[in-house]
Amino acid sequence: MSKKENDTNKLPTKVFSQRESLITELLEVKHFKILKHLFITLLFGYIARDIVRALSSAKDVNFGFTTIRIGFKNFHYALACWIVLFGISLLVYVLFRCWALWRTELYPKSMFTKVWDTIFLFLIALYYVVCLFIFPLLWMKSLHLGLASFLALLSENARLLMKSHAFIRTNAPDVITYKPHSENPLDLPTLSNYVYFSFAPTLVYRKEYPRTENVVIKKALLDFLEVFCIIWLESYIVESFLLKPFSHVGKLKIDWIDIAVTVTENSIAGGLLMLANFYQVLHAWCNAFANLLRFADRRFYEDWWTSTNYSAYFRHWNIVVHDWLYEYVYRDFYHYLIPNNKTAAKYMVFLISALMHEQIIGFSTGYFLPVVFVQFFGLGTHFTFIQTKHPMCNVFLLYSLALGNSINLSMHAIEYYARVNCPYPDRENSSKLLPRLITLDCV
Questions:
Q1: Which residue of the set 357, 382, 390, 412 is catalytic?
Q2: DSSP-based three-state secondary structure for 3
Q3: Domain containing 310: what range?
Q4: Is 84 inside a domain boundary?
Q5: CA distances to 76, 80, 148, 158 from 83, in Å
Q6: Is residue 155 part of a domain?
Q7: Rg (CA), the chain
Q8: 135 and 255 part of one domain
Q9: pTM of the shown model
């Protein structure tokens, strides 16, 4: 990641430059393009196998479409909620601008300035609480969204919240340090700056970003087409490998040995889903918006697949989120909240990231099953202290990622079927939030 030093005592900050995505560069090499063709060939092989099996047993073939229909239930409600969320994020810009302009009319150290700052901070904190807890609770109780619809809505909710925080955190210091009687007017971001940032494939705010010369609509459409194709691919993998083995949960008692065997067998499916989700979100989706908005810095990830330790993997897997965590969590904790303590700042980064993952998954599923939290904060954080460079460590890391994804998906599949096949409608709402894996009901 390209960065620069502000001074000798401060951590470097993000610098944007014109760069292509790594896979885009690699696909220029015909030998690497063959790997993509081999993956598609493997997929066709699985489809042909299922067609032959279905014809020989006279059963219907769904090919993941049932999972898509159930997962994206009431997606139009989710889209309406997103419009509301985006409107609220625009109000955040209006609130910030009002606070900044009125603050310039007050004396910097007066009581009125402190009161005005306190009101602004209270309203921003209220915005965070409403978006993180109040809205998700209301949506969970009233909209009856499918799992994919809810995950998409809450992911967008988190994205807009992170963008709003980045905008305020970047511009607020300029307002606070501005001298009211200065000859130079306060240079505030325009609404067009804020709207562009809202859709740009980055979470780090800047007034200007490097731009390409032209909008490439054809490439953007191809990227969106890949996104929709991968949605189908993911649903096919989930339906074929992750749902069928656990469909009897809640009807029959399931043994933990059987669960361990199935989880191990599903590690290949877990790895495929991890790769599909990576390509879908961090390559196709981000590049689609980059092509439409002429956003030139398209290094949304690095070569994480060559990592030999978890520290390198976490830095390279998702540059978009990593940059936000570095700029607005790690640096702030290191400079202001826990000065000069990089270990404590690292723990806070992993804690906040793990909690956000659990907030999205927990509200989407409607129960508390902290598998991701344990994997991410409990294990992943401590694995980053193990610095290894041996090539075989890369094999271990890749397999552990696939197995970890299989564990996460399998546990949620078990919980889903336990609730479908063994409901208990007469209990209080608090017990419904607890998973069957913890209460040992129906499993």
A1: 357
A2: strand
A3: 208-443
A4: yes
A5: 11, 5, 18, 14
A6: yes
A7: 24
A8: no
A9: 0.89
Task: State the Cα–Cα distance between residues 174 and 177, nearest whole angstrom.
Answer: 5
- Number of domains the chain contains: 2
CB within 8 A of 30, min separation 6: which ones? none
Q: Is 346 a member of any domain?
A: yes
- Supply the pLDDT for residue 5: 41
**DSSP labels, 243-310:** IGGGTTBTTB---HHHHHHHHHHTHHHHHHHHHHHHIIIIIIIHHHHHHHHTB-B------GGG-SSH
Q: In this predicted model, what pLDDT tens digit does every residue of 300-325 receive, in sequence order?
A: 999 999 999 999 999 999 999 999 99
> What six digits make up the tokens of 411?
């546990």
Q: Which of 199, 224, 240 is the last residue of a domain?
A: 199
Amino acid letter, residue 431: S
- DSSP letters spanning 321-333: HHHHHIIIIIHHI
The secondary structure of 222-261, three-state, reads HHHHHHHHHHHHHHHHHHHHHHHHHCCECCECCCHHHHHH
User: H or E stretch including 366?
Assistant: none
Q: Bridge partners of 19?
A: 297
- Tell me, yes or no, whether 150 and 237 share the same domain: no
Contact status, residue 227 vs residue 288, Cβ threshold 8 Å: yes
Residue 357 appears among annotated catalytic residues: yes
Residue 173 and residue 236 share a domain: no
Contact criterion met (CB below 8 Å) for 105 and 180: yes
Which of 318, 311, 224 has the alpha carbon at shortest distance from 274?
A: 318
Domain-terminating residue out of 145, 165, 199: 199
Q: What is the pLDDT of residues 114-163, one digit of tens each?
A: 898 899 999 999 999 998 889 988 888 788 899 999 999 999 999 999 99
How many percent of the chain have pLDDT more than 90? 48
Compute the half-sphere exposure of residue 167: CA atoms within 13 Å on the CB side of its CA: 29
Question: How many secondary structure helices (H) and strands (E) does the chain include?
Answer: 21, 2
What gap in Å lies between CA 41 and CA 48, rounded to an integer? 11
Residue 297 lies in a domain: yes
